[in-house]
Amino acid sequence: FFFNDTATPEIYTLSLLDALPISGRGSNMRSLIAAASAPGFPAKIALVIANVVSAEGLRFAAEAGIATKVISHKAYDSREEFDHAVNGALEAAGIEIVCLAGFMRILSDWFARRWEGRLLNIHPSLLPLFKGTHVHEQALQAGVRVSGCTVHFVVPELDAGPIIAQATVPVESDDTPETLATRILGEEHKLYPAALKMLAEGKVRLENGRAVFAR
Ligand code: GAR
C-alpha cells in the first residue's frame, strides 16, 4: 500500500458533505459501504462526515456500525476553518484516504493539497465536460449522445483532477435531466468502488499531477 507507512493502511473515510438536497441522499456512500463489506475488499470505511445533521446517509452509516460525525459549515467563519475542522476529525480517526460522495461544497486549496493523492471525488459527467452544477442539463443542452461519470483525484481547481476511471451511458432522445441522472447514478455505484479498489491496491497513484497506472 503506497500511501504511507502507518500501521493501519486499510482505513478509509467517506465524507458525505451536503449543501444541495441531492447530496444528502448518500447512495454512493452506500455503494462504497456495501463494496467494502465484501470479503477481500482492500479498504475499510472508518468514518462518515456530513455537514448537515439531516443527511440521510448518516443514519445508514450509523446502522452499518460506522463512526459518523457532523461538522456544520455554518459554525465556521471561513472555508479554511471548516476544512481544518474536517481535517482534524480525519486525523483523529487515523484516516488515510478521503472519498467525497455528493460533496457539494468547494474545498479550500489547503485541504486539496493536504490530501493530495489521497482525496477522491465522483462527478456525474465525462470530465472534462460539464463541470460544476446542473451537469445533466448541461449535457442535454450540448446534445451529446453519451454521458457518464468520472472518479478523479481532487486538486484545487474544481472538477479538474487527474482521472482514475470513467463509465459511459447512452443519452436517449427523450431523456430529461432526471432520467439521465438516474442512468448515470447506476454506473456511479459500480465505478466508485472499483476506483477505490484500484487506489487501495496501488494500481493507480498521483504523480507529478498525473494519474499513473500500474501495469
Ligand atoms: C452523485 O450523482 C454525484 O456524482 C454528484 O452528486 C450526486 C450525489 O448522490 N456529485 C457531484 O455533482 C459533485 N460535483 P448521492 O448522495 O446519492 O451519492
Explain this structure to me?
By secondary structure, the chain is an alpha/beta fold. It is built from 6 helices and 9 strands. Strands 3-2-1-4-5-6-7 form a 7-stranded mixed beta sheet, sandwiched between helices. Helix 2 links the parallel strand 2 and strand 3. The site of glycinamide ribonucleotide has 14 residues, from helix 1, strand 5 and helix 6.
Unique bound compounds: glycinamide ribonucleotide
Figure out the total of helices.
Answer: 6
Strand content: 15-25%
**N→C terminal distance:** 15 Å
Q: Any low-confidence stretches, pLDDT <50, length ≥5?
A: 1-11, 18-22
Shape: globular
Residue-averaged pLDDT: 87
What series of H and E elements makes up the topology?
EHEHEHEHEHEEHEE
Sheet/helix structural class: alpha/beta
Radius of gyration computed on alpha carbons = 16 Å
Biggest pleated-sheet summary: 7 strands, mixed
Query: Taking strands numbered 1, 2, ... along the chain, how are they ordered across the largest sheet?
Result: 3-2-1-4-5-6-7
Count of beta strands: 9
Helix content range of the residues, please?
Answer: 25-40%
